[in-house]
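User: I'm new to structure prediction. If I give you an amino acid sequence, what do you actually give back? Let's try with this one:
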Amino acid sequence: MRSIQSFFKGVYRFSSSWTGTIIIVLMLIFFVAQSFVIPSGSMKRTQLIGDFLFAKKFAYGIPIPHLPWLEIPLLPDFQGNGHLIEGPRPKREDIVIFRNPQTPKRHYVKRCVAVGGDELLYDNKKLYIHFHDLTDETSIKQVYPHAEIIRLRDKLWVVNPYMHKYPGIQYKPEYQGNSFMLMVQSYRMNRGIDMKPVEIEELGKTLFYKKVEPDHYYMVGDNRDNSNDSRFWGSVPYANIVGKPWLIYMSLEFRSYDWVYRGIGGNRDHDKLSRVCSYVDLDSKACEDLWNRQRYTVRWGRVGRAIDTIQLEEPIE
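Assistant: Good question. You get back a string of structure tokens that encode the predicted 3D arrangement of the chain. For your 317 residues, that looks like this:
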């Protein structure tokens, strides 16, 4: 009995020390939960700029721990898949935190729209997906009862399959044009995009096409016309999967007027500015004053909300 008491006293003394506290906090960050902040509008309005959230690090296995801020791996990749312990893979519709394949030190948050073996066609305002494991209309309707199904190239494709379920999915560019035209321009200027143009005879036009590689995941922002995502830099391998957003613990509107109006910081948001300045010109001192009155306000309706439930509701701002 005394040995048990001595053990717990020792644990208590260790956890109360600075060294013990730091080690415990790091273990939680490495293996249980980590804090992230949404920095851009690519997931608007499912997740907003200024949402502070906890992510479950164990949702898809245990990723190799990295030193916070410096993002230096602390252990070798023994299994060659970026994880100490292999786990379940991301599913379609999941919102996932991952490392960008081109810039692995940066974390991104997007929705997984397709998995390995799926095929995608992208048109202006339309994302067509051929699910490799749903081969007939009956099986598709069981999963997506409101789906619009179309036959192209002798395969069944579902048009924007997730928009009926998740109200935050939208096409709202914060610039002149849209992501489809941006992809066309990038392709013509040889800047490199992931999807390739193909002629679709049934529609009489050219769309962008992609087949997702095995054990890879296609990540697209819910605000599809204002998102830098897999359409431009490719599928995300399992090795880059970090975790799954879990809970919003704070949501703060911290952006300046210059940021939301002129795009300083790369995240212009005239959509939000229009709601604040509904009766005055956006480019006016009156609008700037109205914005500054509500700057640094807490979005209390989002605080303490689980991502799995809030994404099914009309967006809360």
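You can read the tokens as a compact description of the fold. Here is one thing that stands out. The mean pLDDT is 89.
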